[in-house]
């Protein structure tokens, strides 16, 4: 299967300048190795903080479910 980097970039909400933008499998791998989640797991305002921690995800998940 070929990576569809350009297509993936159209839906990527990450505002950080990163060479992995659009290469989702590598992005997820990188963040998992760091105990984090990628930007696409976070709402827009939370993504802008660059806090990709699981704790931040859980906090924002609660906010989104209210």
State the distance separating the first and last CA atoms. 39 Å
Structural class: mainly alpha
What would you call the shape?
globular
Integer-rounded radius of gyration? 12 Å
Task: State the total count of DSSP E strands.
Answer: 0
Count of spatially separate domains: 1
SSE series: HHHH
What profile does the largest beta sheet have? none
Poorly predicted parts: none
Q: What share of the residues does DSSP label as strand, in percent?
A: under 5%
Helix content: 40-55%
Number of helices: 4
On the 0-100 scale, what is the average pLDDT?
90
List the helices and strands and how they pair.
Elements: H1 5-9, H2 24-33, H3 44-47, H4 54-64
Structural write-up:
The protein is mostly helical. It has one domain (5-64). It contains 4 helices and no strands. The termini are far apart.
Short description:
This protein is mostly helical. It has four helices and no strands.
Descriptive key words:
66 residues; globular
